[in-house]
Amino acid sequence: MGQKNEEFKEAIYEQFARIGKAISSPKRLELIDLLAQGERTVEVLAHEAGLSVANTSQHLQVLRSVHLVEARKKGLYVTYYLGNPAVCEFMRSLRSLARNQLAEVDRITRRFLGEQTALDFIDRETLIKRVKQGTITVIDVRPVEEYRAAHIPGSRSIPIEELERRLAELPSDQDVVAYCRGAYCMLAIQAVAFLRKHGYQALRLEEGIPEWRALGLEVESGGEGK
To answer: What amino acid positions are annotated as catalytic residues?
Structure first.
């Protein structure tokens, strides 16, 4: 009986360890985060993650071997997507655990993202209320492909690289709220800094689409948001 129990534990924990091995690379975690925004081709993932297509493919195969991601052929391209919605929840739990247990997470966040104050943010309840009232403008500064995959209702797509060119599209008599991929994404921070420099009252929504979904809030897909 004792031997059987030991064999079972060894076999089952070996399977659990496969997940740990698959996510042991920072770049693989980044790829999962990118796929949480929406499905992507290898080429797009490589560009967003700053990797070669070959290296991206290798990382994706490791993740695919434990079904954290899956793939489908779409025309001439292979498109990757998360293998299960639970992968998003796992990533959220991992970030929360790291933030609670590792002081380095907050130090790195402050170093690269700067000191944030309560005045820099808008909470989701206030955002939803003001969108319905029409007293606020919400912009999604992620790449347009991510906006098409899923976005906050009422938001418009203005990718960060287009913000300067499209500044005149934004009303100067309303608060402008920018959001991106979540708490550890710099795109919304950059957008808010740019908007304030040009005289706009700009705020940041800390949550991204994965957090929005996890809270059971409505998201939309499709469209250009212009």
So the answer is: 180
